[in-house]
Amino acid sequence: MTLLSIENLSVSIKGKAILRDVSLLLECGEILAITGESGSGKSMTALAAMQLLPSGSTQNGTVQLGQYTLSQMTEDELCKRRGRDIGMVFQEPMTALNPVQTIGAQVTETIRQHQRIAMKDARATASATLERVGLPADRFPHDRYPHQLSGGQRQRVVIAMAIVLKPSVLIADEPTTALDVTTQAQILDLVSRLAREDRMGLVLITHDLAVVSGYADRLAVMQNGEIVETGPTKTVLNNPSHAYTKMLLAATTHQVTLPKPSKPEPLLTAQNIRCRYRLPRRKLFEKPEFMEAVRDVSFSIARGERVGLVGESGCGKSTLTRALLGLEPLHTGSVTLAGASTAQHQDAAHGAHRKMQVVFQDPFGSFNPRHKVARLIAEPFHLLDKRPPRHEQASAVSSALADVGLKPSDADRYIHEFSGGQRQRIAIARAIIIRPDLIIFDEAVSALDVSVRARILDLLAKLCDTHNLTYLFISHDISVVRSITDRVMVMQAGQIVEEGPTERVFTNPQHSYAKRLVAAVPPLVIPAVKGLNT
């Protein structure tokens, strides 16, 4: 039985075509995946199915939900159908939840919006639904607020809100993009299980083809607002017919070749690091308690070495990163870079800090949007004892832009004029402009499309050859870390539980936690596909 039918749907916003003749069918109990790069129209298709298009948009075609023609309904009529007959799980749960309402109240509100039911009964249904998605009240009290939960737990709350009335269709828009591999596996297992149990139709929007291959029955590939290929998932992945699909597959399985590291020479040394946070008192005169985010961590990085750091959210990766950069006070231990301490209170810290740079996950958030690229890239010059003359800075900016594959003329543009991948290239240019000894990449490619990610990884491999880069690559994406590092460290609950050569750790992990991380990575087994020019 067909649950959702989209026929010849075209959407334009203020005259600009966004979707072009999109047609999709979703059957009862089926999981349909929609994949493609950013800007391909995936999310707009989901919003069109929900009839949540932005102001200034016009649409042609029909959206049929069972017996209801959504594309011809008024807003009041649509409000009765959304949540009851069609639900949606958004990519960022924190923006989908009300920060001043408890999680139990928010699920209860969904019920009360559509059913005339006593508050007591609504709360009981909400509690049962939260337990069904893995948030039982005895372990996760339902009077908690969203900020008191982890990312994966917040996503479970959003799923509970979407399924509490057992809609016939559930749309999940990139529900696991920002989650680590184990939480991603849990969320995907959860939504697919709920779809099978309730005989819902599930539309799974994702750019991760490994996720698609493990969960979807059928696959639709989108490019520039059009469906370029559709069919059974195994057929599309094993025998793609469209050039764009082949490119996505090649980018997903893309591997880079790193040059051999230079002769080992100690660069960064961390010894017995401990970082802790003071917890709020539960009673007025109670002795304060502390939470140890990093517990007795020791490691070293040699010059020219590429090291990865993996672990789940909350394991201490970010705290350790700040400690290495001198942005987090150490409770005990020491961090030295080329023999100089990076501790905040040390006089030598300034000299050590100029030898380290960082590339953040969100390049747009790390730049001042009011400044042009030339000034943004030149920011690290303030770390030097003597700032170079302006003409030398301009020359260095042009050289850095060329090193990352951009044009010198891009220096006169603003950061909002660039794509996500170009912004990350600019962030890398800023990191390398003063030739630091060490660069820390903090989830630097996790938000990028697969093809853009492949090009950024190729860029890093090239810079390793031309600049002899030494870096610490922090990511929850094990496939990326496996491709771009020589050695990897696995972190759990503030401790390094395993470390060694990258291929050995991921091929034959010894620690139970490392085994669980590797097992959680969704496999993508396809024939080798040519067609990506990176």
Could you give the topology of this structure?
Layout: E1 2-13, E2 16-27, E3 31-35, H1 42-50, E4 57-65, E5 68-69, H2 75-81, E6 86-89, H3 93-96, H4 103-114, H5 119-132, H6 151-163, E7 169-173, H7 181-198, E8 201-205, H8 209-215, E9 218-223, E10 226-232, H9 233-238, H10 243-252, E11 266-278, E12 290-302, E13 306-310, H11 317-324, E14 332-337, E15 340-341, H12 349-353, E16 356-359, H13 373-377, H14 390-403, H15 420-432, E17 438-442, H16 450-467, E18 471-474, H17 478-484, E19 487-492, E20 495-501, H18 502-507, H19 512-520
Parallel strand pairs: 3-8, 3-9, 6-7, 7-8, 13-18, 13-19, 16-17, 17-18
Antiparallel strand pairs: 1-2, 1-4, 4-5, 9-10, 11-12, 11-14, 14-15, 19-20
Question: If you had to describe this structure to a student in words, what would you say it looks like?
Answer:
- Helices cover 35% and strands 25% of the residues.
- By secondary structure, the protein is of the alpha/beta class.
- It contains 19 helices and 20 strands.
- The protein has 3 domains: 1-85 and 168-239, P-loop containing nucleotide triphosphate hydrolases (Rossmann fold, 3-Layer(aba) Sandwich); 95-166, no CATH class; 265-355 and 473-534, 3-Layer(aba) Sandwich (Rossmann fold), CATH 3.40.50.
- The strands form 4 sheets. Strands 6-7-8-3-9-10 form a 6-stranded mixed beta sheet, sandwiched between helices.
